[in-house]
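Submission checklist for the structure archive. All mandatory fields must be present; incomplete records are returned to the submitter.

[x] Identifier: Nucleoside triphosphate pyrophosphohydrolase
[x] Organism: Paramylibacter kogurei
[x] Residue count: 279
[x] Sequence attached
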Amino acid sequence: MTKDYSASQELCLNPDGGLPRLLEIMARLRDPENGCPWDIEQTYDTIAPYTIEEAYEVADAIQQGDMDDLEGELGDLLLQVVYFTQMGAEDGHFDFASVTKSIADKMIHRHPHVFGDESRDKSAAQQTADWEKIKAAERAAKGDAPARTLDGVAINLPALTRATKLQKRAARVGFDWPSTTEVLDKITEEAGELVEAVQSLPHDKQVEEFGDLMFVMANLARHLKIDPEEALRSANAKFTRRFEGVEDKLAALGKTPDQSYLEEMDAMWDAVKAGERNG
């Protein structure tokens, strides 16, 4: 028997349909009889990379200060949640309503100083410590094994972000250098070991020593209250801006980078840098 899509179509085409409209659009896209072939064949695994990409695009819009773009990127990110919940509903695991109820219940339970009778008169650090205690109590209530210090730090996070999170977890239990002085000393030590590895050790050891140096650099960023991912994104943007400035100077001479040479481009790079400082 042919399905009657009239009510669904009316909702999908209603510009004021809000969240129910979006949920219905996704259900229609995944409809096994009349949906979109591409959407129908997607799985949790195939959609996950898009979710990560959309989260980065949200962060990029924020960094650029582009609120119009941010509005669109937030919609793209919300679509990822809707996609997963539609698949979860099809498989009988969860749906959008159960997911929203779960996170709302969690926020209420983990903020007794806002929604309960606990005092709000405590520092952000104390609230973070209380949050961890509440999480531990939740795990105990479910009969889970006692959490290890580094449990729950997602493996698929960007490596610098994960390094920082691992170090923050360890610092909570006192495993941390007391000041940046010790971290800087460790950076000097690790840099020396990397130089030695490059000069005399096989490639796998060079990779290991490079990783050690990067890990300590992430630790320094944490001590300086710097987000290493944000700092590196800023450095990437600066390099892109300056190299494009070099390209512009070469273009004014009727040349491209592959028609130039290092000394010429290096001089132009210095000129671009000077222009930024004087501008």
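[x] Structure attached
Curator remark: The chain has a mean pLDDT of 92. Residues 67-91 form the longest helix (25 residues).
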